[in-house]
Design brief:
Elements lengths: L18 H52 L13 E2 L7 E3 L14 E5 L2 E6 L14 E2 L6 E2 L1 E4 L5
Protein name: General secretion pathway protein G, general secretion pathway protein G
GO biological process, one term: protein secretion by the type II secretion system
Keywords: Membrane, Methylation, Transmembrane, Transmembrane helix
């Protein structure tokens, strides 16, 4: 006796993915994207912190040039976002534009000083940075606490 083949609609095929396989793939993608996102955020923070350090270093160099010409540092506050010029001759420019914080455009760095000294403050976002101060210092000019400081060479 010959067997009659079953119609195609009754045959069972094993093509496609099971629900558990799809869920495992989604979970793996989620774990990998979380790890990559975390690394991306850390890289962005490191970049901003490097920029902050460069900015304060550039401001410090400009302040030294200012001091060499005027035998004093400029009185606080510095006009962040605008040029640092000679007090009597605006054509003498020490810095074309005093930089502002790259992460917070509405918040500037802090400058505190007198005729013979200065301190420049910033907040670094990576707390494990070796240059972060152990104790936050409040800038006298604005009362905000900062964790990074550059000061004139004549201060201890």
């Amino acid at each position: 006796m010959n067997k009659i083949p079953a119609p195609d609609r009754l045959k069972r095929t094993n093509s496609g993915f099971t629900l558990i396989e799809i869920l495992i793939v989604i979970a793996l993608i989620g774990i990998l994207s979380t790890a990559l996102w975390s690394n991306l955020i850390q890289s962005i923070y490191k970049g901003k912190d490097a920029r902050r350090k460069q900015d304060l270093s550039a401001i410090a160099k400009s302040l030294e040039l200012y001091y060499n010409d005027n035998i004093s540092y400029p009185a606080p506050p510095l006009d962040f976002g605008n040029p640092l010029t000679h007090p009597d001759d605006a054509s003498i420019v020490y810095m074309a534009k005093i930089p502002t914080d790259p992460g917070y455009p509405d918040r500037n760095y802090c400058y505190d000083g007198g005729a013979d000294f200065y301190r420049l403050y910033a907040n670094l976002e990576i707390s494990s940075d070796p240059d972060v101060l152990e104790v936050f210092e409040a800038c006298p000019a604005d009362g905000v606490e900062y964790n990074y400081l550059i000061k004139s060479t004549n201060l201890p």
